[in-house]
Design a protein that fits this description.
- With 358 residues, the protein is mostly helical.
- 51% of the residues lie in helices and 6% in strands.
- The strands form 2 sheets. The chain has a 5-stranded parallel β-sheet with strand order 1-2-3-4-5, with no helix packed on it. It has a two-stranded antiparallel ribbon with strand order 6-7.
- The termini are far apart.
Length: 358
């Protein structure tokens, strides 16, 4: 009342204007809240024209979520984007969303930012990501997630090959949590095999506005910055660098799902080979990386072949077999570059390495 009285005294607003503004806000809130039953009714009618649901800040709770997601779970809709930021649900609401993600084939963007789902809710989402194959963007910023939730997300994301953007800004993440995210995309604990099994689809963990770790934790800022720098370096030099699919089509129509899947598999193996190359050349990278980078498509088969002695043969075979960017060549390239003379490809795509292990 004090601010209103001051406003009246200084004649910046009259009482009638104040009442009118308040009435307009009430009408607007009522109109906006009416969107919820409208969405639910249209979804229950299997309205496939709804592709985006935006209920940010409308007081959505767990009960409303259950009503909203029931037709989506039944496969009656084609919703691709779901925005539920600044609402009133917690871990139970996150579990409801997780059930949708576990088997939905349409949702590509989901935002749960500024909901107190905590680590329990994050774990439910993580379990769903292990089964999801289509989600590309997930916003879990400011959701009160701690290191336990982040560790579970990092573990589950090794089994997910579609998610590209995961926003974790503003959560209670220490350097331990950041380290788990680094191991998710660049796991060297088991050598070449663990690198191959890392996540190769993620491009970013935040949108660049704030750090993903909590500066209030006791770890030194330098330690946090080093971990974040390593994480950003891997994402930029490997995951992001080879994130674009390499399929091409002569028609204007969208590529088939089988073609996209094949392209994604090839992209994943491209990233895996890049990480293996970086890991194996880490001792000489500072001196020779600029020179090697220009020739990496030529020398990778030889480096990987030589490393078969110390790594897993099956992993090496898969990398070489399924990565056209390493195998596609013509006779002119072979004549011009001696690196390619000992690597041949048969008609069925099998790689024959000659003199590589000699």
């Amino acid at each position: 009342m004090g601010n209103i009285a001051i406003a009246f005294a200084t004649s910046t607003i009259s009482f009638s204007e104040f009442v009118e503004v308040k009435r307009q806000k009430q009408l607007e809130n009522k109109r906006v809240r009416s969107l919820i039953p409208t969405y639910i009714a249209r979804l229950n009618r299997s309205d496939e024209t709804i592709t985006t649901i935006n209920l940010n800040g409308l007081g959505v709770d767990t009960n409303i979520l259950r009503l909203l997601t029931a037709p989506i779970n039944r496969g009656q809709t084609c919703v691709t984007e779901l925005y539920l930021e600044h609402n009133w649900f917690g871990s139970e609401g996150a579990a409801v969303v997780a059930r949708v993600l576990s088997h939905n084939i349409h949702l590509k963007i989901v935002s749960l930012a500024h909901n107190h789902i905590g680590s329990i809710g994050a774990m439910a989402i993580a379990n769903a990501l292990e089964q999801n194959t289509v989600l590309q963007r997930l916003n879990l910023g400011y959701c009160k997630i701690d290191d336990d939730g982040v560790k579970k997300l990092a573990t589950s994301l090794k089994k997910n090959h579609s998610l590209k953007y995961l926003n974790l800004e503003g959560n209670f993440i220490s350097s331990e949590g950041v380290r788990s995210l680094l191991n998710c995309v660049y796991d060297t604990s088991g050598g070449i095999q663990s690198l191959f099994d890392s996540n190769h689809s993620l491009i970013s963990y935040h949108n660049g506005q704030r750090t993903i770790y909590n500066p209030n934790f006791p770890e030194t800022t330098v330690s946090n910055r080093q971990l974040v720098f390593q994480l950003a370096s891997v994402l930029a030099s490997c995951n992001f660098r080879y994130s674009q699919p390499r399929w091409t089509t002569t028609t204007t129509s969208s590529p088939s799902s089988s073609l996209v899947k094949k392209s994604n598999d090839q992209t994943s193996r491209r990233v895996a080979a890049c990480k293996i190359l970086q890991y194996c050349l880490k001792e000489h990278r500072n001196d020779y990386w600029k020179c090697i980078e220009k020739l990496e498509e030529k020398i990778v088969p030889h480096i990987v072949g030589w490393l078969v002695r110390y790594g897993g043969v099956e992993v090496m075979y898969i990398v070489l077999r399924d990565m056209p960017w390493l195998l596609e060549k013509n006779q002119e390239d072979v004549n011009q570059n001696p690196f390619l003379e000992s690597c041949d490809e048969t008609s069925d795509g099998t790689v024959v390495m000659e003199n590589v292990l000699a």
